[in-house]
């Protein structure tokens, strides 16, 4: 019935993350309507707790996308040629990754009015609105650097596209004509298409750029505060999760027998 009604994509139990998300949406809807919130009922909370444990016992875990660290990122960048589309994709990927692992919505909403040129090939981008700063409060960490290879790629894209105002990353129509701003879903498509062209195996998506940046920072022993300053994470636990997942594979303790 749920599948026929369009509420589920396929038969079977929904993913735990999907369930939690829908409960959160239901809770928010009641809150906005100033109605009694059934999601806060102790019985509902107990049921959700037991559901989470049941998923865990069955070996079901949340599916995380693979991280695009430096090496695989370089491989997909190599697929970006000198065409208009190639220039755009290279600039987009490097902008998203090097400026701190931007979320796909942050990439597609990037606008020229918030981009400041530092020198011929380096920029500073002011990220006023984000998931962790929805009120647009001004903080020093709102300034995201676009330097080095990322700055050069962005400069080349702006030069070849002729963009001086409005959205930085846009659709490219037939004949090389620029269209409207890319949608967040387009970032996911670009990542997947470039990974396929590069022959990289793995489950990559737009979030792979963000997780890849954090993972690479941990691999290169970048101080946690510096990493969080660029990513915008407020939760130390979240960032440490990426750091630790990488460090366990490099740990000397893991090779004691050798």
The helix content is: 40-55%
Beta-strand level of the residues, as a percent range?
Answer: 5-15%
Number of helices: 10
Cα(first) to Cα(last) distance is: 56 Å
Mean pLDDT: 86
Instruction: Please give the domain count.
Output: 2
Please report the total strand number as a whole number. Answer: 5
- In terms of quaternary structure, the protein is single chain
Describe what this molecule looks like in 3D.
The chain is mostly helical and 258 residues long. It has 2 domains: 1-63, no CATH class; 70-244, Intergrase catalytic core (hpI Integrase, Chain A, Orthogonal Bundle), CATH 1.10.443.10. Helix content is 49%, strand content 8%. It has helices at residues 16-32, 42-57, 70-77, 84-98, 104-108, 148-161, 184-198, 207-219, 224-231, 236-250, and strands at 115-119, 122-126, 143-146, 170-172, 178-181. Strands 1-2-3 form a 3-stranded antiparallel β-sheet. Strand 1 (115-119) and strand 2 form a beta hairpin. Helix 3 (70-77) crosses helix 7 and helix 4 packs antiparallel against helix 6.
In short:
The protein is mainly alpha-helical and 258 residues long. It has helices at residues 16-32, 42-57, 70-77, 84-98, 104-108, 148-161, 184-198, 207-219, 224-231, 236-250, and strands at residues 115-119, 122-126, 143-146, 170-172, 178-181.
């Amino acid at each position: 019935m749920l599948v026929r009604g369009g509420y589920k994509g396929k038969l079977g139990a929904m993913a735990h993350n999907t369930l939690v998300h829908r409960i959160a949406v239901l809770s928010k809807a009641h809150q906005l309507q100033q109605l009694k919130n059934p999601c806060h009922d102790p019985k509902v909370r107990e049921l959700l707790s037991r559901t989470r444990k049941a998923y865990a016992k069955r070996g079901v875990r949340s599916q995380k996308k693979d991280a695009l660290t430096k090496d695989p990122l370089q491989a997909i960048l190599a697929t970006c040629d000198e065409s208009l589309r190639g220039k755009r994709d290279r600039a987009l990927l490097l902008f998203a990754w090097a400026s701190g692992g931007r979320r796909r919505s942050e990439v597609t909403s990037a606008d020229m009015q918030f981009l400041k040129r530092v020198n011929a090939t380096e920029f500073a981008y002011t990220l006023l609105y984000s998931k962790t700063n929805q009120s647009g409060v001004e903080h020093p960490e709102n300034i995201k650097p676009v330097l080095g290879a990322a700055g050069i790629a962005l400069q080349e894209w702006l030069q070849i596209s002729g963009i001086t105002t409005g959205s930085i990353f846009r659709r490219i129509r037939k004949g090389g004509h620029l269209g409207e701003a890319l949608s967040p879903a387009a970032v996911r498509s670009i990542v997947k298409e470039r990974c396929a062209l590069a022959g990289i195996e793995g489950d990559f998506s737009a979030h792979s750029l963000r997780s890849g940046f954090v993972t690479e920072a941990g691999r290169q022993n970048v101080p946690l505060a510096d990493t969080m300053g660029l990513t915008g994470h407020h939760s130390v636990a979240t960032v440490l999760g990426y750091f630790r997942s990488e460090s366990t594979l490099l740990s000397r303790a893991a090779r004691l027998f050798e």
